[in-house]
Amino acid sequence: MDAYDPTPADRFSFGLWTVGNPGRDPFGEAVRPVLKPTELVKKLAECGAWGVNLHDNDLVPFGASAKERDTLVAEFKATLEDCGMVVPMATTNLFSHPIFKDGAFTANNPRVRAFALKKTLASIELGVELGAKIYVFWGGREGVECDACRDPRTAIARMRDALDFLCEYVKDRRYDLVFALEAKPNEPRSDIYMPTTGHMLHLISTLAHPEMVGVNPEVAHENMAGLSFVHAVAQAMEAKKLFHIDLNAQKIGRYDQDLRFGSEDLKQAFLLVRLLEGTAGGEPYRGPLHFDSHAYRTEDFDGVWEFARGSMRTYKLLKARAAEFDADPEVRQLVAEKRDPKLEPLLRGFSRDKAKQLAALELDASAVAREGLRYERLDQLLTEHLLGVR
Ligand code: GCO
Ligand code: MN
Ligand code: MN
């Protein structure tokens, strides 16, 4: 045990579908047996996790009777209690059953949309019963291959209708539950609607209850789109909409790899942890730190628990490195904000007078442009902190 070993105070969570993933892929069968949800909870607790998240069908198989459901839920709750684990987030599987082949809330057939809503209502009940405070919406199949099948505006409107309906439901039931929307650009569909966190942030601003809805950005998904995950998360934080986060790793331009957090692009992972922890002085994120990732298909169950511990340790290692980086006097000096008490008041809060002063401003653009900004030094310092030599 060292300072980087996870404890429940670190707020780390895993999905049942993550450590429980048997390693099936489009080209090959499962390489690991399917463990019972209660077994997964016990092992996660042993690894130092705080929470476990689930889709409805990770716990209650599709089509189970009410009696079977209640037995499974009771057994699961008892195990959570024994292990001191919580369920911070729950979600609905709206992608596995063939009925969802054309999407769920955005499908063209109203019977599919009705089934998706009905399934989500039941799944919200399950989540609330297990104590979840966050409900994630990942529109796995809310997209197209054949784009001519509907006007994309119709898909957006249908998604809005579903979210508005479900917000009202939660309010009507007086549940202490918020929604978090998770974007993904593609996979399993060729194109998924509202493909980035930015798209989701805009959709939220058009909802009937925007205050109840935030985002659940995922490292892999923003990377698949070739975008900066750190910037997406920062925009969500700035908008006070970072309700949840899916941590993993991904190479740009590949299929959704869902790799162990920090196992690709350590620098982005460092900058992400720095942002989430507020070591540079910004407001930190205080929600669950969820790993939505899978162990390599090469692993047996020892490898899976190695993967789980590794994910959490890497986060804590990066948190320590980020704190040291931001405490480094040379770094502080390099990132210190330039001040200009005469100019700064002109830059905020329009008035005709300020516009006039700006028009009359005498500024030697070439002299300003000649200054070197020393970002090479700053970036090298980051690398040296990351590699543990400073
Ligand atoms: C994926 C998604 C999912 C969701 C999960 C919870 O690419 O498969 O990331 O893992 O996060 O369905 O909503
Ligand atoms: Mn995810
Ligand atoms: Mn994913």
Question: How does this model look, in words?
Answer:
The strands form 2 sheets. Strands 8-6-4-3-2-1-10-9 form an 8-stranded parallel β-sheet. It is of the alpha/beta class and 390 residues long. Helix 10 links the parallel strand 9 and strand 10 (289-291). The protein has 2 domains: 8-327, Divalent-metal-dependent TIM barrel enzymes (TIM Barrel), CATH 3.20.20; 329-386, no CATH class. It starts with 11 loop residues before the first strand and ends with a helix. It has helices spanning 16-19, 37-47, 56-59, 66-83, 110-129, 152-172, 197-205, 219-224, 229-238, 266-277, 301-327, 329-335, 352-359, 365-370, 375-386, and strands spanning 12-15, 51-55, 89-91, 134-138, 143-144, 178-182, 191-192, 213-215, 246-247, 289-291.
In percent, how helical is the residue content? 40-55%
CATH architectural arrangement of the largest domain: Alpha-Beta Barrel
- By CATH, the superfamily of the largest domain comes out as Divalent-metal-dependent TIM barrel enzymes
Secondary structure tally, helices: 15
Low-confidence stretches are none
Tally of strands: 10
What would the average pLDDT be, to the nearest integer? 98
Number of domains: 2
Helix/strand structural class? alpha/beta
Q: Tell me about the largest β-sheet.
A: 8 strands, parallel
**What is the CA-atom radius of gyration, in angstroms?**
23 Å
Q: What is the class of the largest domain in the CATH system?
A: Alpha Beta
Shape: globular
Q: Cofactors and ligands present?
A: D-gluconic acid, manganese (II) ion
- Assign the CATH topology of the largest domain: TIM Barrel
